[in-house]
């Protein structure tokens, strides 16, 4: 039988009646291993990078799933050439939708206890996957988010300022500090995944909503140090559109928090 998250109610500035993890026992007693952690890689037009990323991830974990979000290039073919499983959307639906498709696929497999998400463009180093397993096993946290803010020397100035502002803003809303809320390199227990599937977000805002859902369920969110990697990949974030979505999401999360009080 899988251990469940043990919850209790506590007081919090934003979630006055949100559940919190019990102090009596660690939230997770399942040890994360290369056999029970599955890597989920959402990809969109990543034919240049995906084979290398998937191959390197395969060296760290036994289960690798690439979700091709409607690419018309050779993203799927390159991923399959790495010897990993590929699911493809017929049309582009957004990063959040791709992650949800991967979650549904992996949740059908009882042997998978944790799901780790990393991008397919090379910004996340598969060699740092063990850091997430170590953090999960030492902290017992059901969710671990990568933290690039420990060394920002190679991070573009605008991204550094944006990440710090958004992390501060989101941390206030969810009621616990997450140093790098914008990092998509993250791992969580399967007990959280079902809740992620019910969210309306389907684009990049989905990653923020994941944090809010975990916090509402009383889950401690730990941080794992990861590298800041920027190459010649092109960001798929639309500055104006996704900024508007971000503030709309923050407003909705605040309204939902007040409604629970």
Quick take:
This protein is of the alpha/beta class and 261 residues long.
Q: Compute the number of strand runs.
A: 9
Distance between the termini: 33 Å
Which geometry do the CA atoms define?
globular
Mean residue pLDDT: 83
Distinct helical segment count: 8
Write out the strand line-up for the largest beta sheet, numbering strands in chain order.
5-4-3-6-8-7-9
Radius of gyration: 18 Å
Largest beta-sheet details: 7 strands, mixed
Going by CATH, the architecture would be Alpha-Beta Complex
Low-confidence stretches: 1-26
- The CATH superfamily label reads Spore Coat Polysaccharide Biosynthesis Protein SpsA, Chain A
* Helix content bin: 25-40%
- Determine the CATH topology: Spore Coat Polysaccharide Biosynthesis Protein SpsA, Chain A
CATH class: Alpha Beta
Description:
This protein has a single domain, classed as Spore Coat Polysaccharide Biosynthesis Protein SpsA, Chain A, CATH 3.90.550. Helix content is 38%, strand content 16%. It has helices spanning 50-58, 75-81, 95-107, 129-139, 157-174, 190-197, 205-216, 239-260, and strands at 7-9, 19-21, 37-43, 63-68, 85-88, 114-117, 143-147, 186-189, 221-225. The strands form 2 sheets. A 7-stranded mixed β-sheet has the order 5-4-3-6-8-7-9, with helices on both faces. Strands 1-2 form a two-stranded antiparallel ribbon. Helix 3 (95-107) crosses helix 6.
């Amino acid at each position: 039988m899988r251990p469940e998250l043990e919850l209790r109610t506590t007081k919090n500035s934003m979630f006055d009646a949100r559940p919190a993890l019990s102090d009596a026992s660690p939230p997770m007693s399942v040890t994360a291993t290369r056999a029970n952690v599955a890597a989920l890689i959402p990809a969109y037009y990543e034919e240049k990078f995906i084979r290398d990323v998937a191959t390197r991830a395969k060296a760290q974990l036994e289960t690798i799933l690439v979700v091709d979000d409607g690419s018309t290039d050779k993203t799927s073919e390159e991923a399959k050439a790495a010897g990993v499983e590929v699911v493809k959307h017929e049309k582009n639906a957004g990063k959040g939708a791709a992650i949800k498709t991967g979650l549904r696929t992996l949740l059908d497999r009882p042997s998978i206890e944790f799901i780790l998400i990393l991008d397919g463009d090379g910004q996340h180093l598969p060699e740092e996957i063990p850091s997430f397993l170590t953090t999960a096993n030492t902290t017992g946290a059901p969710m671990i988010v990568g933290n690039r803010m420990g060394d920002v020397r190679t991070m573009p100035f605008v991204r550094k300022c944006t990440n710090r502002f958004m992390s501060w803003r989101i941390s206030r809303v969810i009621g616990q500090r997450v140093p790098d809320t914008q990092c998509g390199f993250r791992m969580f227990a399967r007990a959280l995944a079902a809740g992620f599937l019910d969210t309306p977000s389907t684009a990049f805002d989905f990653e923020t909503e994941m944090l809010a859902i975990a916090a509402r369920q009383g889950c401690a969110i730990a941080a794992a140090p990861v590298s800041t990697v920027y190459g010649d990949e092109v960001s798929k974030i639309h500055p104006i559109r996704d900024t508007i979505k971000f503030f709309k999401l923050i407003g909705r999360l605040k309204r939902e928090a007040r409604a629970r009080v």
